[in-house]
Design a protein that fits this description.
Layout (H helix, E strand, L loop, with lengths): L8 H14 L12 H8 L3 H13 L3 E4 L3 E4 L9
Antiparallel strand pairs: 1-2
Length: 81
């Protein structure tokens, strides 16, 4: 993967996962990859992967179920028009 040098990696991974959520690759209710899976897929530190999941939860895109994992939440409907 080619990284943008001036953008923190966690933000770049966040953008990738956000796009996957919005485009339906990860539909509501789907379990997101965990820290180790993100670490392996993107080749980043586990702390970086953990930050991505924390930020997705803070943005309301995911919620954590302790002991189970992080899951995509229902996306709010966007206005049509």
């Amino acid at each position: 993967m080619e990284w943008e040098p001036d953008v923190p990696r966690w933000r770049q991974i966040y953008a990738i996962l956000e796009e996957r959520i919005v485009d339906g690759t990860y539909p509501p209710g789907t379990q997101l990859p965990g820290v180790l899976a993100l670490h392996e897929e993107f080749g980043v530190a586990q702390m970086t992967a953990r930050r991505v999941l924390t930020e997705l939860r803070a943005a309301g895109l995911a919620q954590m179920q302790p002991g189970v994992g992080t899951f995509v939440t229902e996306l709010p409907e966007r206005p049509k028009g």
